[in-house]
Amino acid sequence: MAQKDGSRKDADQDTKGITIKKVEDMPEWYSQVCLKAQLADYAPIKGCMVIRPLGYALWQAIVNQFNTYLQEDSVQNAYFPLFIPESFFSREAEHAEGFKPEVAWVQNKDDKDGERFAIRPTSETIMYDSYGKWIRSWRDLPLRMNQWCNIVRWEVQDVKLFLRSREFLWQEGHCVYATAAECHKETLHYLERYRQIAEDLFAIPVLLGLKTEREKFAGAIRTYTIESLMPDGKALQMGTSHDLSQGFAKAFDISFQDKDGKSVLPWQNSWGMSTRMIGALVLTHGDDKGLVLPPRVAPHKVAIVPIIFEDKKAMIIAEAEKVGALLKEFNPIVDTRDEYTSGWKFNEYELKGVPLRVEVGPKDIEKRQAVVIRRDTGKKDFVPLDRLRQHVADVLEQMHTDLYAVAKKRIDADTLTVTDFKAFEKAIEARKMVYAAHCGEDDCELCIKEKTAATSRCIPLDEKTAKPKTGAKCVHCGKPAKYNAYFARAY
Predict the structure, then answer these.
(1) Nearest 5°: CA angle at 414, between 409 and 417?
(2) I need a surface site. Which of 135, 147, 408, 422 has the fewest CB within 10 A?
(3) What is the pLDDT of residue 110?
(4) 223 with 242: CB under 8 angstroms?
């Protein structure tokens, strides 16, 4: 039914909107935002989820941007089988042991004595079997490949939409190099690419660092990570890049003839990020009204809502459509539905996180203007139509900058430096991230986890930040510190 009086209130907002405050119960708030903003839904299979069109549009934005990076980096997309022979896992013992609890197995019921197949938990083994056939000479290197695919890890019981589920979407890059130096350089380069996705596309500040020996990827000699701190005090790993050295090359008979005619083992890396990035977006930027989409990732950057009065309906709709044409580069929604009130539409676009709402009513038409409202701050501007396109472009860019700055300020405030374990425990209990010196011993790190449920997130990449002060002691055991690291409870 069309709105008769131009009122911006609506009785449906209490039943449609988010019913819990973010600070009161973040898990419930998060679930409501994902469901009610129509990002995702729970699947009939335990531990799995359905990604709805809006959620998939966010993933597609990652795919589009990252494919641009891949092209710049001379990485080719390919696709490898979902099923991995069990014998492949036994070739690299540490890798096999690391993934053993997570693997789902299938076997042909008519071939009970035949080999089982793993449903892809990661693709190192299936891809490197092919690499062993394809690589012969130094001329074949570097080999750089990526695949976009689904992953299955069967340890998950209760799904946390986008954050943890048995099946999820990701990309995984796998590269082979003639030298260790080139491998190391590009391992860090792809980590930087993940920083660009997180910060430049999603406006989420991240830490770049090295995982400890305890937390590194099974089969790698070094794992690098981007980590961010969510508003509930939990860290979230959002992308990793692994230096695999020559271990997989040995296991899968990958070798090449160098320029001197000698047979040499190459160096390898692998790197990946997943739909978990979408969960990070929801947690970082969302508010009590619902989703807040950073402009660069939003599929529709503007929603145009005509403020309809019945006696001027045709004129107002026509003007709204003109405004839509003016702003076509921002892929606007021009909402001319007359079965919903303007207030209902306001609530819907706030819930779904559309960055800007543009209102057009009779008075705006008279003044040759439109009303522009930011989703994140609610700031309202009355903008002449001849300046509207530029104003929208400027505000969208400023919104990205502001979202990043707000998140960065919160993360900085929630990251504490401590020098003794009592302060460490107190900070973790207060849902903070802790920066502290550590001895680097696995048993000590495990003990910290058992006492506080906190894990090491990363050792800073910056050597000055990572290096402890002269004479510094481990925050837990008191032994000489090997490095400084960030600790937090995590998803």
Answers:
(1) 115
(2) 422
(3) 72
(4) yes
